[in-house]
Amino acid sequence: MPALAATLLLGVLAPPLAAQGLRLPPVGAAAWQDEPARACAPVPSPSQFPGWQDLPLQTTIPDPFLPLAYTTLDNANGSSAPDFARAVMEGRAPGRVASPDEWYRCRRPEILRLLQEYQYGYYPDRAGEAVRATRSGNTVSIEVSAGGRTGRFSATLALPAGASAAKPAPVVINIGGMQNQPYLQAGIAVVGFDYTAVAPDSNAKTGAFWALYNGRDIGVLTAWAWGFHRTLDALNATVAEIDAARAAVTGCSRLGKAALAAGLLDERVALTMPMSSGIQGLGPYRYTSLSGQGETLENSKSGAPWWSSSGLGRFVNHAENLPFDAHTIAAALAPRALVIDQGTADPFVNSKGTSVIVYPAAKRVYEWLGVGDRIGVSVRGGGHCDLSGFTSVLPFVQKILLNQTISKDYDDLGSYGSPMTAAFPWATAIPEAP
């Protein structure tokens, strides 16, 4: 039987989220929907964001409800820097967002800008891209053109039995490999793409992404996230057996950091599944010694400076001045789903910090937005990137992508016990929606 071949040229793609502004509807019915909209706090232009010396030293993870404009030290109004920092950390600083509407309309777009400025680099404008996808059997060849330049990479399909154009399957897109069989048996397609052909894990500016965007101050995590997105474009165009509207992204370690970026920067991703992602993922920049000596901003930037833009390097030795932490990234995914996998025998990526600080802090925001059931954590035994993590999170994936009822408790922190609430004191003063 000849291999199936299909080619489709995709036209102009949507601009990045930061350029689009908010496009998510408010979640849940509430009285605040009828309230007059407050003006959004001002957001600096690119490269005009405050430096570490302009920001308070926050020893606990920052208040996600406080816009950057009200976080800088020039808001102290005569208070000492430590007193102002304490007010910021405890949720007592003025100017916090007051409603879910304001979160979606103002704060979430600001967080996306802030994270691109300080960590990821600015995502390229998709409006200038055209994607050509060609399928032959279980291989999809992807060609992206922009500005007269072209980059190429490929993806490999694994389809569950019974998947068809009439009954398309949801999909998990992964990099670095995963446990395919349990997902295929559950009726979920698995797609992997060659991330090294998108951008190497080095300073080398080769691969499909850099063929288009060489010379820009963008981290490799963002380049790999772009690879997830262009793969999703290609699946939507050429693989009728896959329902691209029910897509999840996953990876482990540095590839888990990339999967998190992929979920953050594209609203089409229904579920984000970072595993053992550590610093620049869902490991906190603060409390890095909680699991013993492990990954820090400093050793991450010295060991693999190419993962992030130069913005993060400006906070080396000043991580506690960052106006965000990993919970901010997680919260910005809402109302879309997030499941986190961590192994208790994986101290280097601070699995404990992710589990008892980042996850419960982000969940407070999800709950406030009315979508608390769309975030979960799997605390399992085992070490770094243990393949059992994929089966551990599978019931949550089935809940989100297949709308199944599950019994597993994804709020259970296992041997880590209870949330470390002292790390997020602002949670005692969460804004009340009018």
Could you explain how this protein is built, in words?
The protein is of the alpha/beta class and 434 residues long. It has one domain (5-16, 125-429): 3-Layer(aba) Sandwich (Rossmann fold). The chain has helices spanning 17-20, 81-89, 100-120, 180-185, 195-198, 208-213, 220-238, 254-264, 297-303, 310-313, 326-332, 351-368, 388-402, and strands at 5-10, 130-136, 139-146, 149-158, 169-174, 189-193, 242-252, 269-275, 337-343, 375-380. It has a ten-stranded mixed β-sheet with strand order 1-2-3-4-6-5-7-8-9-10, sandwiched between helices. Helix 7 (220-238) crosses helix 8 (254-264). The longest helix has 21 residues, at 100-120. It starts with a strand and ends in a 32-residue tail after the last helix.
List keywords for this structure.
13 helices; 434 residues; disordered N terminus; globular; Rossmann fold
Sequence-ordered SSE layout with sheet pairings:
Blueprint: E1 5-10, H1 17-20, H2 81-89, H3 100-120, E2 130-136, E3 139-146, E4 149-158, E5 169-174, H4 180-185, E6 189-193, H5 195-198, H6 208-213, H7 220-238, E7 242-252, H8 254-264, E8 269-275, H9 297-303, H10 310-313, H11 326-332, E9 337-343, H12 351-368, E10 375-380, H13 388-402
Helix pairs in contact: 7-8, 11-12
